[in-house]
Design a protein that fits this description.
Strand content of chain A: 15-25%
Distance between the termini of chain A: 46 Å
Oligomer: homodimer
Largest sheet of chain A: 6 strands, parallel
Helix content of chain A: 40-55%
Number of strands of chain A: 10
């Protein structure tokens, strides 16, 4: 992949991948940039510009092969490179993540789940027996763990992060407000801040109401 | 607020608000742009530039008043303007949202929760009795409902959206992959695509591994 592709373009690729997966499932073989843009509610020039960042895949007068473009974007994202992962937290959020996401199609494989609440330890989730959080260290020492998914509150992450980092876990999907990459700059962290999303929604509703 | 502030700047405001709330809770009275930038892992010039979009609040040689800046950003976001909201879906995700988020501090108030699964109807969540999804129409007709939070799969949203829109619900916090604003362009929709976040994480891990 060419260097210097901005993170903004990268962040749009999952969306392309998602729409192309759907088009392929619906039996669509090829698509023009105009039509792809329309499906994605983007402009055709934006689509062409984004895909040109990766060398372009379209043929003049033919458009894009849906399966080919999907495969190529999957390759750029590296989704076939499966990262063994542990989930910390089997509360409502952890259970929602474990239940609804197709990890294997998104570049991850969930191999173990840990929970502090003893009532939940021993229950099954996605075919995995929930372990006690006392067992994290032993598990990570004896298994290949690439990524930790943190469905935990901020203070729990604060208590755990030094241990996880010392054990060599450097990649995090983080639902807490704890700022991991500030403490450990050589980590890769994707934060999901649901409250930020709600505040943005609040702003946008207010702005719309002003113009009505 | 000045017109023409980009959505990129707006999307950073919740983050400022979050950090300022924390600083205030920790008893910090005033803060320089350099220090605020450091707390937020941003550059001081970025912080000054962002805050200047709204007229700037800092005083030379003094910095920013934490409480004053927080209040001002809260005012810009309109967080004191509370939007009455319903939650659709009381499964794991819906329960996680209802349990963990301080809606009232984020511009929303959860007034009712609806669920298809009869086993969950009648249970309590955040002090609210979960209602059957048969009751949505009656509820929305007889109550002030500004926003719907959709903790539902795509096909459920597809089935419900026409009814909700016809009932006058135009604002959505959407966890499904159903593209609401494509169908109804006068809606305000914040989408949370957890799978996109995971794919981005996958890409970033692979990129890091290439350079190691």
């Amino acid at each position: 992949m060419p260097k210097g592709v901005s993170i903004q373009v990268i962040r749009r690729l999952p969306r392309y991948y998602r729409f192309l997966t759907e088009l392929e499932a619906n039996g669509v073989d090829k698509i023009s940039s105009t039509k792809l843009a329309s499906v994605m509610s983007a402009t055709a020039s934006q689509v062409r510009q984004d895909l040109n960042c990766f060398g372009g895949f379209g043929q003049q007068g033919y458009g894009y092969s849906v399966a080919g473009l999907r495969e190529e974007i999957g390759r750029i994202l590296g989704l076939n490179n499966i990262h063994p992962s542990i989930l910390l937290g089997a509360g409502n959020l952890g259970r929602a993540l474990a239940t609804h996401l197709n990890f294997e199609q998104l570049g991850f494989k969930l191999t173990a789940i840990f929970e502090k609440d003893k009532k939940l330890v021993g229950t099954m989730l996605r075919g995995i027996t929930v372990l006690s959080d006392d067992e994290i260290e032993e598990y990570v020492r004896t298994h290949d763990v690439d990524t930790a998914m943190l469905a935990l509150p901020k203070d729990s992450v604060e208590k755990l992060i030094d241990k996880l980092y010392a054990l060599g876990v450097k990649n995090y999907w983080n639902f807490s407000h704890y700022d991991i990459s500030k403490k450990y700059s050589d980590t890769v962290v994707e934060n999901v801040h649901l409250s930020d999303s709600l505040m943005t929604l609040c702003y946008r509703i207010n702005e719309k109401n002003k113009t009505e």
